[in-house]
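Agenda item 2: adenosine-5'-triphosphate complex prediction
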Amino acid sequence: MSSDTSKTENTKAKNTEEQNKEKAKENTIELKNVTKRFGKDVAVDNLSLGVEKGTLTMLIGPSGCGKTTTMKMINRLVQLDEGEIKLNGTSVYDIDPVQLRRTIGYVIQEIGLFPHFTVFDNIATVPRLLKWDENKIKKRVEEVLDMVTLDSSYAYRYPLQLSGGEKQRVGLARALGADPEVLLMDEPFGAIDPINRLKLHDSFLEIQDEIKKTIVFVTHDINEAIKLGDKIAIIKDGKLVQHADSTEILYNPANQFVESLLGQDRSLKALTLKRTKDFTSKENVFTVDKDTSQDNVLKQLQKKNEVIAFVLDKNEKLVGRYWLETGKKGKVEINYDKNPIMTEQNNTLNESLSNMFSSGEQILPVVNRRGKFLGVIRLSYIFDEFNK
Amino acid sequence: MNLFQYVSENFNNILGLFVEHFFLFLVSLIVTTIIGVTLSIIATDEGREKVGQVILSITGAAQAVPSIAVIALVFIYVGIGKFPAIISLIIYSLVPVMFNATSGILSVPKGVIEAGKGMGLTKKQILWKLKIPIAIPVIMGGIRSAATIIIGTAVIASVIGGGGLGDLVFTGLKLNRPEALIAGAASSAILAIIIDRILAYVEKIITPKGLKVEQ
Ligand SMILES: Nc1ncnc2c1ncn2[C@@H]1O[C@H](COP(=O)(O)OP(=O)(O)OP(=O)(O)O)[C@@H](O)[C@H]1O
Ligand SMILES: [Mg+2]
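Presented output:
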């Protein structure tokens, strides 16, 4: 019993030390020695965690370790037993819970779109609660729909008329509706197939680059955590095991538990720290306008001694690809592909590599979430990185 | 005497009973809807979902109780006349109203309520903007069965002095006049059909469009 108490006191002392070090930066979200019990079971155990303004912290750990509970204590859906939670320096218990929740965006795994509301009304929910002017709401709905790459015709659809990926996007748009500073996301992409999940990741990262919200994001998936998180908080049995950035966690796992969470192929995982966009180049890349005739393309390619031409429309959206092939009799043929394999700028090197392997291409065009052409990534670039 | 002749000779009498039957029905349906839906809302409030489950089991089983048993019990404890008849109709038709309203509200997806709460809707807003509109088709289903049940049971409730079309049926039975019996039963069936059509229309109007669209 007595040794137990002294142990807790030790951790407390250590936590305060860490916090003092971070004080200078002033965290937007600050959890201090937070404990939550359900009956006798301790769901969250003396957990301290700070989230810096404009950054994304991933909470990861095994099922039942207390991730959701930790998150729900921030918007007071769950009442804490001990400790303190501050939002911009104010205790959340000094704010009316309903008002508090209207200032925090919230996305859950079930999405929970209101089925009897249109997409528009779903997104407008919090702005209306906050009594925004209808014109401002209309503008905002268009803006967030565009952000999640849904065109404005979606505004008057109902949730039943959306695909799984579209629902997730609307869920994110709804959370962004009233432009909250803080977002809480509980496995928002959990219920979606891997291909759509990758797409959502890329969109989400681009959006976060633009809007720089302070985000707590719960996940089960270590790859997702590494890919999306500025910081990763690893939780086990309600306790914080390690809280650091992805590189630190990959190269200096705090203990065996973190190592096992990271899994086997750690050199490959290191590739997931790198983004495709940082290896994208426009050097020696030949593009043509959509209206250029095939003969013209062939001539230009031969003149420049190139074999591939990417076809762009007037918005620089990638719409096709020409490539030259030398036939049996040495005759050069030109081919057109209107659905070229591509990779998104926020894909990790790992993901772009596997796109290359599965398509057999050594050069992939790189696009953003709206399909805009940004350059190419080459297999050689990835190998150079891997050999470092 | 054939049916046609009977009806034309007693038209005013039948019409009077028909109107009386209708008012018996209307009062019972309004009261049972208000009481039933209110109780279901209370029983399904946050943290009280267990009470809702119990109500589901009880009302589920109570559907097997014959109407005559309820009428007899009310007769024993309350007596005879219009008022006891209406009481028995209300009690008997509370069962489908509460069963449907409770199960309708409980089956609103958890994620919807959680999202609403997390976005800062108040308890009242969660009830009136989310739970009730989403549960409307199921609640209306209960009200429609209650309506049919009330109209049918009101015929039997005439034995304790409820009046209405039941008087025709029991007169026919006592005096061995099938025309009277058939006229009473058929009028009650016609009333039931008309009312159900009307309620189906109401249901169509108040069901939110988003719940009806094709996937
Ligand atoms: N309302 C509740 N009542 C009782 N126990 C609860 C309640 N909510 C959570 N718990 C318990 O608290 C612990 C932590 O739950 P929590 O939902 O936070 O886990 P999690 O890390 O989000 O798990 P998962 O990855 O499965 O979502 C679990 O043991 C869970 O059973
Ligand atoms: Mg969870």
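Discussion summary: Chain B touches chain A through 25 residues (CB under 8 Å).
Owner for follow-up: CH.
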